[in-house]
């Protein structure tokens, strides 16, 4: 006779299913992928080991519809997974995000091996759709036309233990002619201030010391509730949260950038002296054709006010080169604004058509060779400006929040990397004592390059933080450490400046 204990030992213990999330696009997609990871882990999945490259039970593509050839990139990646799925019974593939919202009817037709297609408004349905596809043995396509639940109410698997995105709104009320995102993300919907602050306080309680407020047009916050000063009030409220050391936000729109926001930035100590404000073009006629509701004078006036209130602020921007109808004179106006604004970095893109946008059908499309030549001129100018502005940092003493994975050469150079309050990337000499991501060090800047600073002397001070404790606790619990979400653009902190790209910007501004 077999005992119950013998029978229990004979039962096969199934390994938990693994998942991988591949993310492309803007900060919204990055944050959505944290939600997707949290949902999957809540459903019992575990992240695939580092370097699995599609060798997971579930592979999720969180797509972007803004980048050039986004659909070709997606179908190419799906094609590479098709033979892997054939060899691996039970493997599932899901496609979500903006491209899924736009191409809902074509994804399964072009890639019939895809199991789930979901949109930007119903990411919370992913585990249910995967299970339904498994049981019914057919693809599940479910695209919600409006937001079902604010994303921040969903489980989250944060990519950083010490810094976090906090979404304050979704959607966009603008009608920029180069951008398809409003059609895919919907009208702006603001989150309750109390819910935002409660999430931030909970994050700080877990050890997070830096948060980035996130919205398609983050400083339009309040339009949904009829309070034009809601965003500045939110910044000031963040200043009252004990233990929150750094507050950033992205991306604001010049149309909504009011004096009360500048005052809140200047008067709230934990709001960092950093501003990313998209320009797109310096030409008034081009801005009008783009349906950007400001002009050159208004934009430069904001920059002047910010610099007067926050002298050490680092200001970055987005610029599109070669928008339809752009003349040489128009382009020279963009060069003029770059010289006047003295951006510390610019994310510069060559215009390319986006199906479904008004700009795609405009006359006077600028020849590719002209766009390329102008792009190179602007990049060369901005490279010099970035370098000159960074040289002004030499000799300054800065407090850096130690970052993880920011310095690709840190191992070879025996350095660590961190972000200054203005978000500049600084590589510094590794001190004798242990320093963890999330800790704070004080250094003196000794050298400037266009896209980073060096602090080659000894570290002046090391402050161990609760954020560093949180990083250490998370890494001790993760053995081996899971793979990170594969991100197309940003991580916490600014992406590398001046990417060689042919897009129209992320559309989140």
Automatic annotation (TrEMBL):
EC number: 2.8.4.3
Domain called MTTase N-terminal: residue spans: 17-135
Binding site for [4Fe-4S] cluster 2: 172, 176, 179
Binding site for [4Fe-4S] cluster 1: 26, 64, 98
Compartment list: Cytoplasm
Catalytic activity: N(6)-dimethylallyladenosine(37) in tRNA + (sulfur carrier)-SH + AH2 + 2 S-adenosyl-L-methionine = 2-methylsulfanyl-N(6)-dimethylallyladenosine(37) in tRNA + (sulfur carrier)-H + 5'-deoxyadenosine + L-methionine + A + S-adenosyl-L-homocysteine + 2 H(+)
Cofactors, names only: [4Fe-4S] cluster
TM region positions: none
Listed GO MF terms: tRNA-2-methylthio-N(6)-dimethylallyladenosine(37) synthase activity
Top-rank taxon: Bacteria
Annotated TRAM domain residues: 391-459
Domain Radical SAM core: start-end pairs: 158-389
PROSITE patterns given in the database record: MTTASE_N, MTTASE_RADICAL, RADICAL_SAM, TRAM
Assembly with partners or alone: Monomer.
PANTHER family reported for this sequence: CDK5 REGULATORY SUBUNIT-ASSOCIATED PROTEIN 1, MITOCHONDRIAL TRNA METHYLTHIOTRANSFERASE CDK5RAP1
Family that this chain belongs to: Belongs to the methylthiotransferase family. MiaB subfamily.
Name of protein: tRNA-2-methylthio-N(6)-dimethylallyladenosine synthase
Organism: Streptomyces mirabilis
The encoding gene: miaB
